[in-house]
Known about the structure:
This protein is an alpha+beta fold. The protein has helices at residues 4-24, 54-73, 75-79, 139-144, 157-170, 174-190, 195-207, 211-224, 231-244, 247-260, 266-278, 282-296, 302-313, 317-330, 337-353, and strands at residues 82-88, 94-97, 100-104, 110-117, 121-126, 133-137, 146-148. The protein has 15 helices and seven strands. It is globular. The two termini are 22 Å apart.
Amino acid sequence: MRTKATIRLRQTTCALLLLAVASLNFNAARAQTRKPRAAVKKSTAQPKKTATSTTTKTTAALTAKTGAQARTTGANIAALPAKSLVVASAPNAVVWLDDVRRGLTDEKGEIELNSVTRAAHVLRVRAKGLAESVVVLTAAQVASGRASVPVTRPADEAERAFQDAEEARDKATDESRKSAVELYRRALSLRPRYAAAHVGLARTLAELGDFNAALAEVEAARDARAPRAYPEASAVEGRIHHSAGDDAAALSAYRRAIQEARGFQPEAHTGVGIVLQEKGDYAGAAAEFSKAVAQLSDSEPVLYQLLGEAYEKQEKYKEAVAAYEKYLQLAPTGKLAPAIESIIEQLRKQAAEQGEPPPDD
């Protein structure tokens, strides 16, 4: 039985997830009203063929190199223990590990990434007004616990427009999104084969409800990338289809993203979990949310709310309380905290009414 507190929490979570996806590159918002699938068609238009940017070439090449190293090592990588990695770069810079955004450096220019496997990884850093820097980390560098990524070269005009677009989209209002669309298009007019700008534009157009145009940008992003395998673009495609009401196409795109990323794609795992939960497969949803939680190393507390809800719907109160309490541990003053505290209390009461031992404190 759903409690009033749980219903209020679900409503609040939908709003917060829209903010979380801007920083983590996945959208877990479960829209109450979804547009019909019939409105969405895949574009067959091909982007203008121009020289690929140095940054795009470098990122794609390094990603491919890292993937080859991972395949060579095979099962041994999974057996290697994970550890924390301190990344030193410019202050207030955005840091990605294997195309997954992990957060911002502090004022000293450092950020600690948790649970990094001792294997090869692609590390990408972007600071406002400066060109992105991309490096491949070896297993030995990860084992050392520290990596330095200099970011000093000024960004060109296309990259500055792209950075402004990302900043505008993060504000998550309709007006800021419209501004972001113009800025992304400005970046693409200067650098047509700018894969990240195509993906950012696809996300923004989807948030504005223009699904056809968003799908066209996903295809343009793939065409601008070499090789075409682009896990983030596939995850965004899944989100677009889900928003448009085509869950079958959404699941196909999300699973493509997971396959392209060789399993490491928290945005796609979260997307699969949301679709499964909406279909009533709560066990399957919990499994997907758990994978996303593990891959993001506790950097996004709201995932624990999703996991707790999936357990709650299975009447696994002990597991639900543990997930909700983990949210409170990570975000004790978060907007969801009061509602989650109320839900934990209700779950304990329900367990007592059913004659079950109360979930552990």
